User: What shape does this take?
Amino acid sequence: MTDLIATAASAALVFAATNIDDVIVLTVLFVAARSTGRPRPWHVVGGQYLGIGALVAAAVVVAAGLLVVPDPWTGLLGLLPIALGVRALLARRDDAEPPAVVGGLLGVTGVTIANGADNIAVYVPVFRALDPLDGLVWLLVFVALVGLWCGVAAGLGSHPAVVRLVGRAGHWLVPAVFVAIGVVILVSSGVLTRLTA
Assistant: This one.
């Protein structure tokens, strides 16, 4: 029993460390869902589950030795949130309503995958070392924490102060958050160094 608790605690720690930035993205998406209707709240939750699921599945496949992912090239996924942010900035509306940066389930899934592509580097050695029971515990903890992350972000996204902030500055703040996330992914992955070398 103590081993299972330790395994669950390790899984929670790794999930929190690799996905803390998702709370910001999810909050922005929930505010957009509340004010523009796009994406719908179930798109945000479903897209987060699909995106994290795809990242974990990729890590398990790589850990099993069935696929080799060239490390820095996953950083090119950072271009997705940059493109979404730039598109929203160019489509800027004159009213205070924040732009719908992501319109649906697949868009949220894509942003989640792009934002978490660097997580694969952490997940692969972990899943390689886990036995099947521990792996199942990790998966269950991840499922629970995705739900918790969505709940926290939905709460923040309906908080009056957050809604006011996004309402006042959302026309540039929401796209800027997406562009910043993309730049961080590109820089931290090392793909820019590889391209300029």
